[in-house]
Amino acid sequence: MKRIFSILLLLVASIGFIFANGEASEAGEIVLAQGKPEIDGQLKAYAALWGEANGVSVVIKSCGGGTCDLGQMLKADYAAGEMPDIFAVNGFEDFLEWEALALDLSGEAWTDNTEVAFVYKGRTFGFPVSVEGWGMAYNADVLAAAGVDPKSLVNLSGYRAAFAKIDSMKSQLGLDSVVSMAAGPEMFWVTAHHNFNSLLSNGLPYGDTSVADELLAGNVDSKRLSEYADWVELLFEYADKAVLTTGNYDSQVGAFATGKAAFLHQGNWTDPNLIDAKADFEMAFAPHGSMEATTEGIFVSAPSFYLVNAESENVDLAKKFLVDLATSSAGANYIVNEAKMIPSFSNIDLKPDGQLSASVQDWSSQGKVYSWNQYLFSGEFRDKTLSPIYNQFANEEIDKAEFIRLMTDAFINR
């Protein structure tokens, strides 16, 4: 029955496209390159439907998740004269690399329906793929069994107490570790992107870049960095060492999905994985505990943006693909029901059924959110300079004092 219902949905979507678009366009091809491999299948299915309705072949190239670097792939494509018609960037530093190729999308039909488009010098260039967020995902059933109140998870002291208590009860709770954390070479984005942002924006008003600005200028707040190092040390101490040092995305998320870890250092983009794994326990996000001071919020923003290649021969088709994605019922169905993402557009009233996405929406509705400031730093700095420092710390090749020293030197000498 479920399969029949899915087929009917696809047919309805196809008919909707045809009614919306009238006669199909002339045959052609557009290429979209994006960095979220977890939605590769869903995006390809949507693109196939849209392409059939518009008489176009839509090629999806997915590159990310630690096993493929989208920035490097795009550079190779550009050098080969095969730059995609639509391609994703993560934020300001990524955009600057491709500014010369970015088509001005100001005035497109979707721009009035979003607050999180990428805007530069007063012009809209980036189509927001979704809204995403992360804190510390927790298994509410495990915390209840351990007598840990999620409301206590707002600072370092709260997490220290909770981690120690749960660790002492691992056997009876059926856990392999307290937290599923990854810091291996292919999981650099967990540490040098997402965890790094705890240092940059935790506890600050949304949009406040003051800590990042100081670090970019080579000025290090030693107290804030020291407390942050305590947070990193705590996560590493209570993680499964195999997952921490050599694990991949599947092993990290899988440990939480199967009830073998009480916490997961990931975001709501894991909802499809958790649903597929039939993780039937209650879960939500708590704030990061990277400070001694109490902080009540999680990190929320648009994770990436689609740019249209201004040099493409298919600019009109590329723009139409994005307009339909943001304004059609089929596009809304793909974003929310298939890809399990939180929509960036106010005209879409569907809500994802993933528990972590619901938690992001709950924190957002309360205004308890912190910015994503990690993308104010270059990918080269995050991935090549900072990531190895986290990796050395996770492998106990350096201690906390050396971690602090190396991080400090990195900011001063960047």
Give the secondary structure arrangement, pairings included.
Layout: H1 2-21, E1 28-34, H2 40-54, E2 56-62, H3 70-79, E3 86-89, H4 92-98, E4 118-120, E5 123-128, E6 132-134, E7 136-139, H5 140-146, H6 156-168, H7 170-173, E8 177-180, H8 188-201, H9 210-216, H10 222-237, H11 241-246, H12 249-257, E9 261-264, H13 271-276, E10 283-286, E11 298-301, E12 305-308, H14 315-327, H15 329-338, H16 355-365, E13 369-370, H17 379-394, H18 400-413
Parallel strand pairs: 1-2, 1-3, 8-9, 11-13
Antiparallel strand pairs: 3-12, 4-5, 5-12, 6-11, 7-9, 7-10
- CATH topology of the largest domain, which one? D-Maltodextrin-Binding Protein, domain 2
| N→C terminal distance | 57 Å
Biggest sheet, in brief?
6 strands, mixed
Say how many strands there are.
13
Provide the low-confidence segments as ranges: 1-26
Helix content: 40-55%
Report the mean per-residue pLDDT as an integer.
92
Find the CATH superfamily of the largest domain: Periplasmic binding protein-like II
Radius of gyration: 22 Å
Q: Identify the CATH class of the largest domain.
A: Alpha Beta
Instruction: Assign the structural class, choosing from mainly alpha, mainly beta, alpha/beta, alpha+beta, or little secondary structure.
Output: alpha/beta
Strand content: 5-15%
Count of helix runs: 18
Q: What's the architecture of the largest domain in CATH terms? A: 3-Layer(aba) Sandwich
Overall tally of structural domains: 2
Largest sheet: spatial strand order = 2-1-3-12-5-4
